[in-house]
Amino acid sequence: MQVSLPIIDGYLPDKYGKYATNDNKYNGQPSLSFPIKLTDLPIGTVTTALVMLDYDAIPVSGFTWIHWTAANIPATMLEIPEDASQNNTFKMIQGRNSTAGGLVGATDPLQTQRYAGPQPPNKDHMYSLYVYALDTELPLKNGYWLNEFYQAIDSHLLNKVRIDFLSRK
């Protein structure tokens, strides 16, 4: 399985992160998700899923920051379009990002259950996007937590790809 992102010199374009225009923010937070292209899915793939994490957030917040989780993306969806998180025009469910946790405590699902773009506070951060090929549709509902996702994929994982990229402070 191969995954392509619009990375330029190792960086996610600014429009998907901290320097997004106000039109591409929700409650002051970057909300325009980036496009993702998938190729060479394993035979038997029924759905794909993705998780975007910021491990560089650990010294800042004390934990890995969850920026986006999405599951049950049909395997026929090989090009996940820009802004798919907000304009979910195909069947996909989205889990909670870290703004839903106790540290931030946001409650608006349009913020907590969508793409929450990078906003590195202290330095350029490295982000990791994991894309999973799965042999089933997961029994999750919108608003699931990341630990529920990990439990649900047990014995259903066909392949996993990790792509690391930077976003500007």
What does this structure look like?
The chain is mainly β and 169 residues long. The protein is 9% helix and 32% strand. The longest helix is centred in the C-terminal third of the chain and has 8 residues. It starts with a strand and ends with a strand. The model has no long low-confidence stretch (mean pLDDT 96).
Largest sheet: 5 strands, antiparallel
Globular, elongated, flat, extended or rod-shaped: what is the shape? globular
Order of helices and strands: EEEEEHEEEHEHE
Mean pLDDT: 96
Determine Rg (CA atoms, Å): 15 Å
Structural class: mainly beta
Specify the helix fraction band. under 10%
Spans of at least 5 consecutive residues whose pLDDT stays below 50 are none
User: How many β-strand runs?
Assistant: 10
What's the number of helices?
3
Strands of the biggest beta sheet: in what spatial order? 8-6-5-9-10
Strand content: 25-35%
* Spatial separation of the terminal alpha carbons: 31 Å
